Automatic annotation (TrEMBL):
Function recorded in the entry: Catalyzes the attachment of tyrosine to tRNA(Tyr) in a two-step reaction: tyrosine is first activated by ATP to form Tyr-AMP and then transferred to the acceptor end of tRNA(Tyr).
Entry keywords, A to Z: Aminoacyl-tRNA synthetase, ATP-binding, Cytoplasm, Ligase, Nucleotide-binding, Protein biosynthesis, RNA-binding
InterPro entries associated with the record: aa-tRNA-synth_I_CS (IPR001412), aa-tRNA-synth_Ic (IPR002305), Rossmann-like_a/b/a_fold (IPR014729), S4_RNA-bd (IPR002942), S4_RNA-bd_sf (IPR036986), Tyr-tRNA-ligase (IPR002307), Tyr-tRNA-ligase_bac-type (IPR024088), Tyr-tRNA-ligase_bac_2 (IPR024108)
Gene designation per UniProt: tyrS
SUPFAM superfamilies: Alpha-L RNA-binding motif, Nucleotidylyl transferase
Single GO MF annotation: RNA binding
UniProt protein name: Tyrosine--tRNA ligase
Source organism (scientific name): Ramlibacter albus
Chain ranges for the short sequence motif 'HIGH' region as given in the UniProt record: 58-67
Residue span, RNA-binding S4 domain: 350-411
Localization (cell): Cytoplasm
EC top class, as a word: ligase
Source lineage: Bacteria, Pseudomonadati, Pseudomonadota, Betaproteobacteria, Burkholderiales
Length: 411
């Protein structure tokens, strides 16, 4: 097949329209939508499932809930009957993905990659249906490519086009180093789509350049080009940076139920709605109704508990989520008075030391940091150990020692 686009003219049935609506829910971009609709129509008419690809590099042993934004979409497409390919980038991890970085990512050793990869699929199977998932490693076709194949692949893209990529452009302008091997990363990720004959590739918004590369290379190799679907990046616990293992603002889906539940409850009230949209399986109408209730006076903590229980139950069980809620309630009752002073602060996100100082719980930021170092500070009953912690907009019970409390309303 040597086509630049999908040319089939199959009927757009109600099933196809439903599949398109499922595909579009919560997405950032679907490119090009017209081609995806045609692919769906062809699949519906012929009974031939589409091949849907997601690649993850095993840079650390745990998948976090930020990854599940894309995995949830994969599960939705899987439930529509399409073939889901969970691709572990054991080869590309040795290069290091430069996406969104202003420095070269240090490569991992083969041993580290293997150790991390062993846990990846097991964790992803908590979201995907293992019986309907094709698991692949890109070393299958990348290693045999060899030096000759790599040169031939590199000939299919220009340096000028590669330098249009934002992170490369910025680093070049700032005179920061760019290693030649980093140019190979998007080429190899794109070649994965050629090897797998992908119809659709999913990723975060930071992966758009790499996803489009796959589309370009498929055309170069005479294949029908894949469509690309990007999902929004989930902000981490701090509500500022994207969820990331390296920034330690994540919830690993293999974490214990009590920790997972407490971490969800630690997010700000504003961030809660973003998480509902990207992580909850509730309908958009249900989420809108909950938001209206909160605007009408319902305690946002009640709704946040619902989110925490849903996420915890997904990766553990409903019983574990109930037990985690009870554990949190028991810990939160640990000496917190019913009537504590309320303090209004602005400037979110605000560093924890400033929160302590401005709320009157510490005389200075120096003393605040000393209290944190001494394990004497708690936020919503969780001990604070990171002096760099920033609190987003929301309401928090902040505790110093056993007797000093403040309900901090941060905007």
């Amino acid at each position: 097949m040597n086509q630049a686009s999908v040319t089939s003219q199959f009927p757009v049935t109600d099933r196809v329209r439903h599949a398109m609506a499922v595909s579009l829910r919560g997405v950032e971009e679907l490119i090009p939508q017209e081609d995806w609709l045609k692919k769906l129509a062809r699949s519906d008419a012929t009974g031939q499932p589409l091949r849907v690809k997601l690649g993850l590099d095993p840079t650390a042993p745990d998948i976090h809930v930020g990854h599940t934004v894309v995995l949830n979409k994969m599960r939705q497409l899987q439930d529509l009957g399409h073939t889901v390919i969970f691709l572990i980038g054991d080869f590309t991890t040795m290069i290091g993905d430069p996406s969104g970085r202003n420095t070269t990512r240090p490569p991992l050793t083969a041993e580290q990659i293997k150790a991390n990869a062993e846990t990846y699929y097991k964790q992803a199977s908590l979201v995907l249906d293992p019986a309907k998932t094709e698991i692949r490693y890109n070393s299958e076709w990348s290693d045999p490519l060899g030096a000759r194949g790599m040169i031939q692949l590199a000939a299919k893209y220009t340096v000028a086009r590669m330098m249009e990529r934002d992170d490369f452009k910025k680093r070049f302008a700032e005179n920061r180093s760019i290693s030649i091997h980093e140019f190979l990363y998007p080429l190899m990720q794109g070649y994965d789509s050629v090897a797998l004959k992908s119809d659709l590739e999913l990723g975060g918004t930071d992966q758009k350049f790499n996803l489009l590369m796959g589309r370009h290379l498929q055309q170069e190799y005479g294949q029908e080009p894949q469509c690309i679907l990007t999902m929004p990046l989930l902000e981490g616990l701090d509500g500022v940076e994207k969820m990331s293992k390296s920034k330690n603002n994540y919830i690993g889906i293999a974490e214990d139920a009590n920790t997972m539940f407490a971490k969800v409850l630690s997010i700000s009230d504003d961030l809660m709605w973003r998480w509902f949209t990207l992580l909850s399986f509730r309908s958009e109408a249900e989420i809108a109704a909950l938001k209206k209730e909160v605007e009408g006076g319902r305690n946002p903590r009640d709704v946040k508990v619902m989110l925490a229980k849903e996420i915890t139950a997904r990766f553990h069980s409903p019983a574990a989520a109930d037990a985690a809620e009870q554990d949190f309630v028991n810990r939160s009752k640990g000496g917190i008075p019913d009537d504590i002073p309320q303090v209004q602060l602005s400037g979110a996100p605000l560093g924890i030391a400033q929160v302590l100082k401005q709320s009157g719980l510490a005389p200075s930021t120096t003393e605040a940091n000393r209290l944190i170092e001494g394990n004497g500070v708690r936020v919503d009953s969780s001990q604070v150990s990171d002096k760099g912690l920033k609190l987003g907009a929301g309401t928090y019970v902040v505790q110093v020692g056993k007797r000093k409390f403040a309900r901090v309303v941060l905007s």
